[in-house]
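Quarterly update from the structural biology core.
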Amino acid sequence: MVVLCYDPIGQGERYQLLDIVRKPAVASQYVGAHTVVGTGAAARRQEHRDLTHLDGIRSLDYLASGPEVDPKRLGCTGNSGGGTLTAYLMALG
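Predicted structure, tokenized:
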């Protein structure tokens, strides 16, 4: 079994806002960070969900590119928003 576990945009170590020396500009990351992604996406006429889905699809692509991985036997799981993303990935991926 090969596992890839990544942080969604704006959570964990995937900060969205950095200061001039590339340190996190916001003291803590929380689910409210989704609104920051949404604002940036709207400026480009995209939706937050589109960026989140693309992030998940590219993660599966990356996982499938490994020589030890059978791309026909991929699966995914998650909880909370990750569970919702799992459903979308199965439909869209």
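The CA atoms of residues 60 and 74 lie 8 Å apart.
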